[in-house]
Amino acid sequence: MRLSVTKRRATFALLAILFAGCAPTSEPTGAWAKLWNFAVGPKYRQPGFDAPPRFRNQLGPAEAASLADLPWWRVFTDKKLDHLISQALANNYDLQIAVSRVEQSRALIGVAASQFFPQAEYQGQAAREKVFFPGFPANPLINSFSGVLSVSWEIDVWGRIRHSTEAARADFLATEDARRGVMLTLVSNVAAAYFELMELDRELRIAQDSSETYSRTFKYFNQRYLGGTDTKLSTSRAEANLELSHATIADLERQIAQQEDAISVFLGTTPTAIERAELPVNLIVQMPPGLTTNLLKQRPDIMQAEHNMVSANAQVGVAVANFFPTIGLAALYGGQGVHIGDVVKNNFSVWNVAGNVTGPIFQGGKIYQSYRAQKAFWDETIEAYQGTIVESFREVSDALVAQDKLTDRRVALEKQVAALNEAVRLSLDRYNTGLANYFEVLDAEQQLYPAEDALAQTQRDQLLAVVSLYRALGGGWNLTDREWTAH
């Protein structure tokens, strides 16, 4: 029985609508959910990890409160640093790259999910040819026109498309975690560089003070030498100390300029001067690490590693599904004729509705080896996940032991600096009363300035320990994107 053109077109449109209706646009429910949940390949299960009850080097009992629960501006409490971090979060190029990667991954979810839906295509052709017949004086010119509209739909029986979409979604979440990891790293790097810059300023002031002292010493010994009351040895030693202080100042000024340039890169600007405060003299920072089990959901790199596992597991499912045949439906409608108007005429039309099954028979082991490769990659992501967790516990432990031991070191250095200041005062008193020569004063000063440098470096290291622990714990894990940048 022949169908009219109108009926054929209606039939074709109805089939396309039915195909589209078969493609799920969201998670199915009811009876269809049972079929939907059927898919070959392994089901994802999170690998277990026995977290210790408390962090090594943790001071005091384990508690729920954590430094990571605080927003970064409440941890560092420096308005100038807050401004720099806000500028970095707005302009840093590494962060912008991470944002672009998130958008790429988001789009790739749509690419993978598009296979759920019917794929409609059109094709048109216009040709002119001349056929030569031996023995015929005239060879005809033949025109040919055709137009075809086709619809095909793969029935996702084995879950290949579902696994591909699951992998794409996990990749997206991994890039999102990577982006948040970049934000946390950026905040930590800016803070660390800022504290190092403050400490270099302190060292520069110490070096300048020492230079002024050595300059007075050199003038004193030189006057004594010219007056014939001292030897050239004293003058040479004083001059050597003075020139060493000049070299130290020049080197510190170089380091300060380069540190400002490094911070400028974090800010997404060309090298510029950085406004900063002075290194705090009195530093008491409480750093509760919180519960060990919270680390697995706070650190973005751990969550990124887990999403990589989910993606790899789903790709194993895709590899398994490739062993099975592809089942689908297809429909076609079109026309062909020697005149372009014949393409839409009933007498020149063609239509087709068909089901198809396509599957591999022999491909030289390609499918099996692809499965083995994907399975090995899955195992790799598991090991990477476990390794990331172990490394995170090491970083927390290192920060905690730094908190403890740097406090002891600072107390000792503060006592040493106080004692050396007293030694300088006493030596000056002895020199002024004629009980000692100036070498005693110079020796006391030569011990004081390195001790002051060591104290400044320890104060810096205590601040860096705060930064390290905040980063190691996944600080700011509970902040929204807007809260990260709105301060």
Please indicate the percent range of residues in DSSP E strands (runs of 2 or more).
Answer: 5-15%
Structure annotation, total helices? 12
Q: Count all strands and give the number.
A: 4
Q: CATH superfamily, please?
A: Outer membrane efflux proteins (OEP)
As a whole number of angstroms, the C-alpha radius of gyration is: 38 Å
Spatial strand order of the main sheet = 1-2-3-4
Mean pLDDT: 85
Low-confidence stretches: 12-26
Give an overview of the whole structure.
The protein has twelve helices and four strands, in the order H-H-H-H-H-E-E-H-H-H-H-E-E-H-H-H. The chain is of the alpha+beta class and 487 residues long. The chain has a single domain, classed as Outer membrane efflux proteins (OEP). It has a four-stranded antiparallel beta sheet with strand order 1-2-3-4, covered by helices on one side. It starts with a helix and ends with a helix.
Write a concise keyword list for the protein shown above.
487 residues, Outer membrane efflux proteins (OEP), four-stranded antiparallel beta sheet, 12 helices, elongated
In short:
With 487 residues, the protein is an alpha+beta fold. Helix content is 62%, strand content 10%. The longest helix is centred in the middle third of the chain and has 67 residues, at 160-226.
